[in-house]
Amino acid sequence: MNDHEKEVVKEVKKIIGIDNIDEGLLFEALCHSSYSNDYTSKGRKINSNERLEFLGDSVLNLIIAEHLFKNFDLNEGDMARIRATVGSELILFDAAKRLNLGDYILLSKNEEKFGGREKHSIISDLFEAIIGAIYLSLGFEKARSFALKNLKTYIKESIEGKLFLDYKTRLQELTQKDLKIRPEYKLVRQDGPPHNRTFVIEAVINGKVYGKGIGKSKKVAEQLAAKEACENFLEELNGK
Fold it and tell me: For binding Mg(2+), which residues are annotated in this chain's numbering (predicted)?
């Protein structure tokens, strides 16, 4: 690792609160394929985080399933629904964003230019890759502790029916109930070539911007904008 990479690993160890994790595995978890490919083409072999993300996804599914089985009297269908919701890209992106992990993922200059640090797929994959790295380095218990520390609130909200994957519908319900209007979604800009485009969309209520979303499709960007708008709109209502 070069000095910059060492510093990034050092900072992420602080963020996740695990000082004794294998630094090589954590470095791999932080390497997006664009960063790996960029350096590999220059003669330096770096593994991307794709394999760790694959492992972390499986470990996370087991963590959530075990937690639901042991702590809640839920049927199979409800457990499957909650696991799918909490393990979705949208929720994992949100969990990673709360930790500011997107600030530390290693990207190529081109991916950085096109908003890679805000792409839900890249950042949610990073979260799973870190779980994979923790699991390989320190075992299942440590991986479970990290995952549940950051996802327990989402699990609770999902069980209580307060966690939504369709935030556009949720936002429309809120605005129609309180203002008798529907939110609007405005495309602010789109970056990148046609095969790798990123969309930036704002959720607007009564002429005011309440949320912004960035995604690989308009649909995803609108959902992320609606999620942020739901939070800000409810906060404004509760503050009245």
Answer: 53, 125, 128
- The structure tokens listed for 211 are 């949320």
Distant-in-sequence, close-in-space partners of 173: CB < 8 Å, separation ≥ 6: none
Determine phi and psi for 99, rounding to 5 degrees.
Answer: -90, 0
| Domain spans in the chain, listed from the N-terminal domain onward | 3-160, 167-239
b/e sequence 116-138, b meaning 16+ C-beta within 10 Å: bbbbbebbbbbbbbbbbbbbbbb
| Alpha carbons 146 and 143: distance in angstroms, whole number | 5
Judge whether 125 is annotated as a binding position.
yes
Q: Are 113 and 196 in contact (CB under 8 A)?
A: no
pLDDT in the model for residue 240 = 57
The residues carrying an active-site annotation are 57, 128
Q: Which residue has the tokens 């005011």?
A: 208
Q: What is the CATH number of domain 3-160?
A: 1.10.1520.10
Return phi, psi of residue 213, to 5°.
-130, 145
Say yes or no to pLDDT of 174 above 80.
Answer: yes
CB 33 within 8 A of CB 111: no
Per-residue H/E/C for 135-195? HHHHCHHHHHHHHHHHHHHHHHHHHCCCCCCCHHHHHHHHHHHHCCCCCEEEEEEEECCHH
**Per-residue pLDDT tens over the stretch 186-226:** 999 998 888 778 899 999 999 999 999 988 788 888 988 99
Average pLDDT on 89-107 reads 93
* CB contact at 8 A, 233 and 174: yes
Asked whether residue 94 is marked as a ligand-binding residue, the answer is no
SS3 80: helix
